[in-house]
Amino acid sequence: MLDSSNKMWEVQQPGTLLRGRSSHQYGKLALVLEEAYAGPTPSNGYPPRQYVKMQWVATGERFEEMLTNAHNCFDIVSSCDTLGPEEN
């Protein structure tokens, strides 16, 4: 079983396939397109939120999800590490 820090790293790796587990996204597959990036800096002094660019597999629609939501609302179906070696 992955611990929380490993899953937080894995859900932002390009090529990782995720399955939604919240009610409105339940069972939908999403592909991570890019690593997390920092959003705009808030005026309250807190660090910026991290966002992950993703794409729904069924429709091809691209969207951005907060890294925390990606961690909490999606299960990892296939990690980018398990997709096989890169071809040269």
Question: What's the short story on this structure?
Answer:
This protein is an alpha+beta fold and 88 residues long. The chain has helices at residues 4-10, 67-73; strands spanning 17-20, 29-32, 37-38, 50-56, 62-66, 74-78.
Structural notes for this entry:
The protein is of the alpha+beta class and 88 residues long. The chain is built from two helices and six strands. The chain has helices at 4-10, 67-73; strands at 17-20, 29-32, 37-38, 50-56, 62-66, 74-78. Strands 1, 2, 3, 4, 5 and 6 form a six-stranded antiparallel β-sheet that branches. A hairpin with a 5-residue loop joins strand 4 and strand 5. The protein is globular. The model has no long low-confidence stretch (mean pLDDT 84).
Topology:
Blueprint: H1 4-10, E1 17-20, E2 29-32, E3 37-38, E4 50-56, E5 62-66, H2 67-73, E6 74-78
Antiparallel strand pairs: 1-2, 1-6, 2-4, 3-4, 4-5
Termini separation: 32 Å
Radius of gyration (CA) equals 14 Å
* Unreliable spans: none
Number of strands: 6
SS class: alpha+beta
**Percent strand:** 25-35%
Along the chain, the helix and strand elements come as HEEEEEHE
Helix content: 10-25%
Largest sheet: 6 strands, antiparallel
Mean pLDDT: 84
- Note the total helix count: 2
Overall spatial form: globular
